Amino acid sequence: MDDNKDAQSAHPQGEEFPTIKEQGKSLAKFTFEVVKDGVLNLSPGEVFASDELKKERLDICKKCEYYSMRHNRCKHCGCWLEHKVKFKVSECPIYKW
After folding, report:
1. Among residues 7, 15, 28, 46, which is most buried (max CB within 10 A)?
2. pLDDT at 10 over 60
3. How far is residue 32's CA from residue 26's CA, in Å, rounded to a whole number?
4. Residue among 14, 37, 26 nearest 77 (CA)
5. Phi and psi dihedrals of 44, rounded to 5?
6. What are the start-end ranges of the H helices in 10-79?
């Protein structure tokens, strides 16, 4: 595998997402933030986003140019949105929420 590969990875249906390496970096950062938040906020109610917040975030994503309707994923960071919006600590990579 070419470590210097900057091109996005093409999905079989023709949509482009970040490289596996970049998706791995995003996942590692996200996982660290969720674990850190979970340790500091011991109550599950403080870790997870409310249903209203999850819906608000998804509504914003669905209007974004990076939203993949077919896969319910962000084409900018590669995240699966149904999972990303569940945690309070999650952030949009282009700061829309």
Report:
1. 15
2. no
3. 10
4. 26
5. -55, -30
6. 20-40, 44-47, 51-62
Report the alpha-carbon distance of residue 74 to residue 91 in Å, rounded: 12
CA-nearest of 54, 48, 94, 95 to 75 is 94
Torsion angles phi and psi, residue 96, rounded to 5: -85, -20
Contact of 49 with 86, CB cutoff 8 Å? yes
More confident residue, 37 or 55: 55
Tokens of 18: 């970040």
- Can you give the pLDDT at residue 12? 52
What are the distances in angstroms from CA 10 to CA 7, 13, 67? 9, 8, 15
Percent of the chain at pLDDT above 70? 81
